[in-house]
Amino acid sequence: MEQPTQGGANAAGKEDYADKGLDFAEKKFGGGKINPEQKRGMNEKVTDGARGMFEKATGKKVSDKISN
After folding, report:
1. How far is CA 34 from the centre of its chain?
2. Is 22 or 7 the better-scoring residue by pLDDT?
């Protein structure tokens, strides 16, 4: 029987475009001091919060392809 994973929707290794963009920024501007894989949980909260603020401000839903 397969054990459930923890860590949200991206625990299976699927990243949306917002997650990939944040990972890129961390790698480029983090000076090699930030490992996006270690910060996955925090990054997920950041991108989810940004999506929520955008949806609240505009009233438009963000595609799951962009941010899930």
Report:
1. 15
2. 22
